[in-house]
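A quick aside before the break. I want you to see a complete sequence-to-structure record at least once, exactly as it would be stored in a machine-readable document. Don't worry about memorizing anything.
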Amino acid sequence: MKNQQTSSARKENVTQGWWIISARGIPLGRLAARVASVLRGKHKPSYTPHVDTGDFVIVTDASEVVLTGDKLRQKIYYRASTRPGHLKEQQYVHFLAEAPTKVIIKAVKGMLPHNALGRKMLKKLKVYAGSEHRHEAQEPKALSM
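That is the input. The structure line, written in tokens, reads:
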């Protein structure tokens, strides 16, 4: 019988590619789940949970992401300082109008590990409100949904 061993990726041996996806007409949750999966490296056979095996992801057209149902008015984003009574709330409509890139970053951040490795993975996410980006030199491949 052949001895089979599971290989574990090492950070020295990881090669990171570049992917691009347009958020036009895609529901926010589905987009964030797909992007988080690629940032973690789960699409690769060499995926290892404790090593950053993921790729860089460029998201364009962030201002045209959609929400299903009536979430456009009902979904509320909260932020708070440590001061009593300083809880701020904002409807998704206004949050999207003010900062469309932050909407996607916040959704993807919630789907990554909440530790130092997750923060490192989030730095590989590049989000742009329009269709223009500045990463043509990396020759990104199209990411399918």
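Two observations worth writing down. The chain has a mean pLDDT of 94. Residues 17-67+99-142 form a domain with the Ribosomal Protein L13p; Chain: A; fold (CATH 3.90.1180.10). We'll return to this after the break.
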